[in-house]
Write a structure and sequence with these properties.
The complex is a heterodimer of chains A (346) and B (366).
Chain A lengths: L3 E12 L4 E12 L3 E5 L6 H8 L7 E6 L2 E2 L5 H5 L2 E4 L11 H7 L13 H13 L15 H14 L4 E5 L7 H18 L2 E5 L3 H7 L2 E5 L5 E4 L1 H6 L2 H6 L4 E4 L4 E4 L5 E6 L2 H13 L2 E5 L7 E4 L6 E5 L2 E5 L2 H24 L1
Parallel strand pairs in A: 3-8, 3-9, 6-7, 7-8, 13-14, 13-15
Antiparallel strand pairs in A: 1-2, 1-4, 4-5, 9-10, 11-12, 15-16, 16-17
Chain B lengths: L1 H9 L5 H6 L7 H21 L7 H8 L6 H35 L12 H15 L12 H28 L3 H24 L3 H12 L7 H20 L1 H7 L3 H6 L4 H23 L5 H13 L4 H23 L10 H25 L1
Classes of the chains: A alpha/beta (346), B mainly alpha (366).
């Protein structure tokens, strides 16, 4: 039996004033070395859950235990040595160096004016090395890119030396590579420092590729947990996110806009080029059927370099790129629609 | 990229401030501290020798060493200029520290004791005593110790009550700009109460109140300094304990709480020290504007940090120095004329505040 760093039982979260319960009867565990991703639509209560778990907000019912001790029995200072947080809000700071900001993480460990002892300095160095910001420590926080700034905030949280690390949408403002870097860093930290890391995110792709476990909050208090793959197989993602406009592709593990098909088109070809041709045609509103005989309309994917051919509304055409193919078909389709409309008018 | 772009915009020829603020060839902190201390000593001696009567520096030093023969000059230096200078030093330091606290607490670059109506509150307290009692307590004259104490208490109570109202409103108002407006409006409302009091007062009382609003370090004698100095020193001692909480508050309240800061007690300490500092200075010297807002910005620019462990002593020194410079300038050296102190602090502090606003615009545009 693994020992959990944090465990909550029959937990209800929400607000007293005005009274609203966002989720109830939650039973949660966080284990050291694991990266947990908290997913859910806006308003499902992700931030509220995080704030409740780290004691920044009161709970409505149930109990939370941190390393075997009751959360409500901890003083603010003791709590600060259990949790470190990285928030979504963007900082508005005056002139402040990266190193100074990381030093703030030592706040719960220092006394008086916050003088740093050699041990504090060592932890700060370690935190900056973990997040790879030692080289920019003299620079000012305002001069950094969003990705670097997020690393600095993570370093500050590390300097707090806590067994639990909570991050509220740490990838929200980042570009693709920044998101992947941060996610990899968190995973690495969880594994190497044996911290329990909990991050909320809207980024399903990222969660599927790095999370050890998913916490999924649906609306109306629904809560499910499991490995990302479990969540795909149990259709949990579909239940929470899918609606009239969104479809979950269980094979690819991603969402796509649900298409209303306005026609069928036959497609001949194979491999990667067929896959992306089908993708484009679906985007254009066609349902793809396999080629049988010589039906119309149809598209054929030729050899690499030879392009595409299409037969559509009696026209036989050759195309050099998918863009050409799709625009040609769209033009023919719109012509037809237009002439039908004009005929109606007369 | 961003930083470099900003630098190049700031890098205009003949801009002396530029070499301090923009990075290259910046003096190290040790040099800065040395320069500041030297400047303060220089200003101290300068303030002793200039005034309506100019006293040569050598004579001044002789009198300081108790070697002087001239009893009149001796009295001018010991009984007039020394209390005035000490008051300026203390008041400048107190207002600047209080401004620094307010700017961090409200996370607003334009916050300061004056902007949030604390001085208006102190003004109301003073007005109630001066105008309301009808006892004809003259502020700048030699009032009794009890009168001084009641003025002092009224001013502090006025300052504290305004600050508490603004702070309780700040819990509901998310937006800092809104809060700033709330503080300003509240200050205006308090001032309108003062004008009601003025309306029903005798001309002599009104005049003594009006003179008080111009601000002056000159009304403070050794006797009054005996009340003012301990008050400011105790306010500064409390402020010193808020250095660490203020640093935590730099990241915002949620981060501060996540680092184990008790917001309530931190706020209480900050309010208490600001009320004592701004309140006592206002009681004895009048509502002195601009210093409290401008000095913290000047220090952030010079020392290139928001770390309160550096800013606190920096603000103390520069605040004291700027107050002294204002006092020397207000004397119009060599003449019998003096200017209202508030006019000088506004002329000195206004450009600094403008510079902060404009620099921000540039940073955003770059």
């Amino acid at each position: 039996m693994r020992k959990s760093k944090l465990s909550a039982s029959s937990l209800s979260i929400g607000y007293l004033q005005p009274p609203s319960v966002l989720a109830q009867d939650l039973n949660l565990d966080l284990y050291g070395g694991e990266l947990v991703c908290l997913l859910g639509p806006n308003g499902a209560g992700k931030s509220t859950l995080m704030r409740t778990l780290c004691g920044l907000q009161g709970l409505l019912q149930g109990s939370i235990e941190i390393m075997g001790r009751c959360l409500s029995g901890l003083s603010p200072k003791e709590r600060a040595s259990c949790f470190a947080v990285v928030l979504t809000e963007r900082l508005q700071l005056g002139p402040f160096s990266v190193r100074d900001l990381v030093c703030l993480g030592r706040h719960p460990h220092t006394t008086g004016f916050g003088r740093l002892r050699p041990r504090d300095e060592a932890v700060i160095e370690w935190a900056m090395q973990c997040t790879d910001i030692a080289a920019i420590q003299a620079r000012h926080v305002n001069e950094l890119s969003d990705g670097q700034r997020q690393r600095v905030m993570i370093a500050r949280a590390l300097a707090q030396e806590t067994p639990l690390l909570f991050l509220d949408e740490p990838t929200a403002f980042l570009d693709l590579s920044g998101r992947i870097e941060v996610a990899k860093l968190l995973k690495h930290l969880a594994r190497n420092t044996r911290k329990a890391v909990l991050m909320s995110t809207h980024d399903l792709d990222l969660a599927l590729s790095v999370a050890d476990r998913i916490w999924l909050m649906g609306g109306q208090g629904a809560f499910q947990t499991g490995a990302p793959e479990d969540m795909v197989l149990t259709k949990a993602f579909e239940a929470v996110f899918c609606g009239k406009d969104i479809l979950f592709d269980r094979m690819r593990g991603s969402f796509k806009a649900r298409q209303a098909f306005s026609g069928v088109i036959a497609l001949k070809g194979d491999g990667l080029r067929r896959f992306w041709t089908a993708h484009a045609l679906e985007r254009e509103g066609f349902k793809i059927i396999p080629q049988e005989g010589r039906q119309e309309p149809c598209v054929e994917v030729l050899e690499d370099g030879a392009g595409w051919t299409s037969r559509f509304r009696g026209r036989h055409q050759k195309h050099a790129s998918i863009y050409d193919l799709v625009t040609a078909i769209r033009a023919l389709k719109e012509d037809r629609d237009l002439s039908r409309e004009n005929g109606g008018d007369i | 990229m961003k930083g470099r772009a900003r630098r190049s915009i700031m890098a205009k020829p003949f801009n002396i401030a530029h070499c301090f603020i923009s990075g290259r060839n910046r003096p190290s902190r040790a040099v800065l501290w040395g320069m500041l201390s030297f400047m303060l000593i220089f200003l101290f001696l300068l303030a002793l020798s200039v005034g309506s009567v100019s006293i040569p520096l050598e004579t001044t030093l002789d009198i300081l060493m108790h070697k002087g023969e001239d009893l009149v000059l001796h009295r001018i230096i010991w009984d007039l200029r020394f209390p005035k200078i000490f008051t300026a030093l203390l008041a400048g330091a107190a207002l600047s520290v209080s401004g620094l606290q307010m700017q961090t607490l409200f996370r607003n670059a334009l916050a300061g004791p004056f902007v949030l109506g604390i001085n208006a509150g102190a003004g109301l307290g003073v007005a109630l005593v001066v105008l309301g009692t009808g006892a004809g307590i003259t502020l700048m004259g030699n009032a009794g110790l009890i009168a001084q104490l009641s003025l002092f208490l009224a001013s502090i109570l006025g300052a504290a009550s305004v600050l508490i109202v603004v702070l309780s409103l700040s819990q509901r108002v998310q937006n800092n700009v809104t809060l700033l407006i709330v503080g300003l409006i509240f200050g205006m409302m308090v001032n309108s109460l003062v004008s009601v009091l003025i309306y029903f007062s005798e001309p002599e009382e009104i005049q003594s109140y009006l003179i008080w609003t111009f601000g002056s370090f000159r009304g403070v004698t050794w006797d009054k300094l005996a009340v003012l100095a301990p008050a400011i020193l105790s306010g500064l001692m409390i402020a010193l304990t808020t250095v660490k909480p203020l640093n935590a508050l730099l990241l915002g309240e949620t981060y501060a709480r996540s680092m184990g800061l008790s917001l309530k007690s931190a706020r209480r300490l900050i309010i208490m020290s600001t009320a004592i500092l701004a309140g006592s200075v206002t009681a004895f010297c009048g509502p002195i504007g601009f210093l409290g807002i401008a000095v913290p910005h000047l220090c952030r620019g010079l020392f290139r940090t928001s770390d309160h462990r550096v800013l606190f002593p920096a603000v103390l020194l520069i605040g004291a120095a700027l107050a002294l410079i204002s006092e020397i300038a207000a004397q119009l050296p060599g003449t019998q004329q003096t200017l209202p102190l508030n006019a000088i602090t506004a002329l000195l502090g206004g450009p600094v505040i403008l510079w902060v606003i404009l620099k921000r615009r540039i940073a955003v545009n770059a």
